[in-house]
Amino acid sequence: MKEQFDIMSYVRLVLKNWKKVLVWALAGAVFGLIIGISTPRTYTSKAVLAPEIATRSSLGGLSSLASLAGVNMNTMAITDAMHPDMYPEIIHSTNFYIQLFDLPVEVETRDSVVHTDLYTYMLDYYKKPWWGYVLGFPMMAAHGVKNIFSKKSREEDLAEEELELTQQHPDSLRLTRKQERVVKRLAKSIKATVQKKTYVLSLKVTMQDPVIAAQVANAVIEKLTVFVVSYRTEKARENRDYYQKIYDETRADYLAAQKAYSYYMDTHQGLSGRSNLVYQQQLQNEAQLRYQMYSQTAQNLLNAEAKVQQEAPVLVVIQPGIAPHIGKPSKVKLIITYFILGALLCCGWICWRKR
């Protein structure tokens, strides 16, 4: 016969051992306090960006009917290759992280304020919990022993240090171990998502300093805006540069033709020969032709400059990065959580022993 489950017997058993449950709960609270003290406090700054969508719809009235059916036809009509869905991929690329290395930041220490860049901050001033050093010690020890007995390993370390000192700008194809470490930390600290319906970009930057978190969030928005504007206006800027070159050439030709005509008129006054009049007419026609070409290229240049302005997208910053006041983890929440967890573990252990 199958034994019936009597929940009240377990409740009475737990209440009978309440002292043991309390001890386990207090031990869990102490463990939570240790975790809270050992874990570096982090702050998350949030920023929101609304991009402009470049569409060219050829569906006519079908788009309005589709919207009533809940279908977003804008995604089918987008002709711009730089779709807002690609913005997180751009932000999470290695080249984008490298552009943030030179961002100037201020680090508050116990004695003073250190002015440095984001690369140095993430490399030298970023704190880790004590278990991070414990878990990483075997790797560090193994690397140190390898350097002692391996000449090749020492040469590689010296080559990396020399490369980092001589590099004016980091190369994404040849990152040193330190640069790769900073890139990985930035990848964990910066999170970007795009809403599917509105294409609004939400950016979250988590740092151990609230002001630096806000600075990085605003720097990411700024660099993303520059990248998107540069991409969208690249063809228009190439056309403008081409028309600028043609404009400079036609202007120089027009001024030269006008100068030749003026000089001839000044030096041949009073001459009434037919050949003189024919040559005078030729110079005048040449100057007029050069002026028409110059005038046309000037108009084309103005249109090209207007096209650059027209192609430039509008990215509206709805919420800039602001330095947060509340950080994580909360020591009180950790103590309460581990207090409850310790009590539940003790209750489970007592019930398991009864089974």
Summarize the structure.
The protein has 355 residues and is an alpha+beta fold.
What do these coordinates show?
It is elongated, with a radius of gyration of 35 Å. About 6% of the residues have low confidence. The protein has 3 domains: 55 residues, no CATH class; 179 residues, 2-Layer Sandwich (Bacterial polysaccharide co-polymerase-like), CATH 3.30.1890; 76 residues. Helix 2 runs antiparallel to helix 14. The strands form 2 sheets. It has a 4-stranded antiparallel beta sheet with strand order 4-5-1-6. Strands 2-3 form a two-stranded antiparallel sheet. The relative contact order is 0.18. The chain is α+β, with helices and mostly antiparallel strands and 355 residues long. It is 65% helix and 10% strand.
How would you sum up the global shape?
elongated
Sketch the topology as an H/E string, one letter per element. HHEHHHHEEHHHHEEHHHEH
Tell me what the CATH architecture of the largest domain is: 2-Layer Sandwich
Q: What's the arrangement of strands in the largest beta sheet? A: 4-5-1-6
Share in helix: 55-70%
Summed up, the domain count is 3
Q: Mean of the pLDDT scores?
A: 79
- At CATH level 3, the topology of the largest domain is Bacterial polysaccharide co-polymerase-like
Q: What proportion strand?
A: 5-15%
Biggest beta sheet summary: 4 strands, antiparallel
Give the total of beta strands. 6
Alpha-beta classification:
alpha+beta
Cα Rg: 35 Å
Spans where pLDDT lies below 50 across 5 or more residues: 56-61, 65-71, 73-79
Please give the alpha-carbon distance between the first and last residues.
Answer: 17 Å
CATH class (first level) name of the largest domain: Alpha Beta
The count of helical stretches stands at 14
